């Protein structure tokens, strides 16, 4: 796979990833190379990663606990303190080896420590490879509210090594695949159709480059999400609210990001049908495709009421209005769409059928 080069960072794949990393480390001569891991990537990924590094450097490993529940300021404080105790300075670098939670949080920690040190993202999940580690969004949650605190700051580089995906369970793979399906829905009908035929992990690996190219193309047009980049949030306005609700509610089983976003995409496809003319055929295609891959989740009326209340915290909102990304057709999104309140209950009723 060819590397994706932009003005501010590069995405390198497979063997080229470690070639680029080794060349960069030799050139920059960082004072200390910090590697941020969680308990899973420490055991399953770090040994293979370290085996590919050539040259002698001072390495320090910092481990955090995995999971969205730990994507908070307390974890950041712990890492900032560790960096200080281990002698980090502005000539240090942080390599974030993990999934989307870790790359989001690691990027934020690096961007704010001593007003910013270099960081490199090495995504180890499908979700982080095609979405979270690319585009410069860093941040943490505020309580159960997703990504409320953060900055947009690009990594030095992103290294995509698909072999790391072999360490994942099927549920984690499916979670990441939801974001790939989103890329088809917002940009490319042919890609949407191709992804519907992807069954195995190897099939999905073959589409990683296309998904990153789609996201990168959008990000380059609008790095700070003032206009066109908003289309990457299709399914996320309701999806993030669902994810937050299931995270904070102890009586509910927590949903992975992609599982919640898959529901959001079905709900927002219904809204698209009612407001923007998305055809009935496309609506049914979207619903069937997601429900064939993701278990249907039960929503009680109280659940729906509380989910809708959480939407007021969505980052795309402006002047007190909840803004949605909807589809005029598959591959043709429209952003900043306001929704009549009565349509939300209809959308959930459609999902339940």
TrEMBL record:
Gene3D superfamilies: 3.40.50.1970, Dehydroquinate synthase-like - alpha domain. Its cofactor is Co(2+); NAD(+); Zn(2+). Residues 62-174 form the 3-dehydroquinate synthase N-terminal domain. Catalyzes the conversion of 3-deoxy-D-arabino-heptulosonate 7-phosphate (DAHP) to dehydroquinate (DHQ). GO terms for biological process: aromatic amino acid family biosynthetic process; chorismate biosynthetic process. The lineage of its organism: Bacteria, Pseudomonadati, Bacteroidota, Flavobacteriia, Flavobacteriales. Its EC number is 4.2.3.4. This is 3-dehydroquinate synthase. Keywords: Cobalt, Lyase, Metal-binding, NAD, Nucleotide-binding, Zinc. It comes from Maribacter stanieri. Coiled coil: none annotated. GO terms for cellular component: cytoplasm. Residues 176-317 form the 3-dehydroquinate synthase C-terminal domain. GO terms for molecular function: 3-dehydroquinate synthase activity; metal ion binding; nucleotide binding. SUPFAM superfamilies: Dehydroquinate synthase-like. Pfam families: DHQ_synthase (PF01761), DHQS_C (PF24621).
């Amino acid at each position: 796979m060819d590397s994706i080069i932009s003005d501010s960072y590069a995405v390198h794949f497979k063997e080229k990833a470690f070639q680029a990393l080794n060349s960069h480390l030799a050139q920059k001569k960082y004072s200390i190379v910090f590697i941020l891991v969680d308990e899973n990537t420490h055991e399953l990924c770090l040994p293979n990663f370290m085996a590919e590094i050539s040259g002698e450097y001072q390495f320090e490993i910092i481990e955090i606990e995995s999971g969205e529940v730990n994507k908070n300021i307390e974890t950041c404080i712990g890492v900032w303190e560790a960096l200080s105790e281990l002698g980090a300075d502005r000539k240090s670098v942080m390599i974030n080896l993990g999934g989307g939670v870790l790359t989001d949080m690691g990027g934020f920690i690096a961007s704010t420590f001593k007003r910013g040190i270099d960081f490199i993202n090495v995504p180890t999940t499908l979700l982080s490879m095609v979405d979270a580690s690319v585009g410069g969004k860093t941040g943490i949650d505020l309580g159960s509210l997703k990504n409320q605190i953060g900055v947009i700051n690009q990594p030095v580089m992103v290294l995509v090594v698909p072999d790391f995906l072999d360490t994942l369970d099927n549920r984690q793979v499916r979670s990441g695949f939801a974001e790939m399906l989103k890329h088809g829905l917002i940009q490319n009908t042919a890609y949407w159709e191709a992804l519907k035929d992807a069954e195995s992990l190897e099939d999905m690996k073959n589409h990683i480059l296309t998904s990153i190219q789609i996201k990168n193309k959008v990000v380059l047009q609008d790095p700070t999400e003032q206009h066109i980049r908003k289309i990457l949030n299709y399914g996320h306005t309701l999806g993030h609210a669902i994810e937050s609700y299931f995270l904070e509610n102890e009586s509910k089983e927590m949903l992975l990001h992609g599982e919640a976003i898959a529901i959001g995409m079905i709900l927002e496809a219904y809204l698209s049908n009612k407001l923007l003319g998305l055809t009935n055929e496309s609506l049914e295609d979207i619903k069937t495709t997601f429900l064939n891959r993701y278990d249907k989740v039960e929503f009680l009326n109280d659940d729906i009421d509380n989910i809708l209340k959480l939407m007021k915290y969505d980052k795309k909102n402006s002047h007190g209005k909840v803004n949605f990304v909807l589809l005029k057709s598959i591959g043709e999104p429209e952003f900043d769409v306001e929704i009549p309140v009565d349509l939300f209950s209809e959308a959930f009723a459609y999902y339940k059928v």
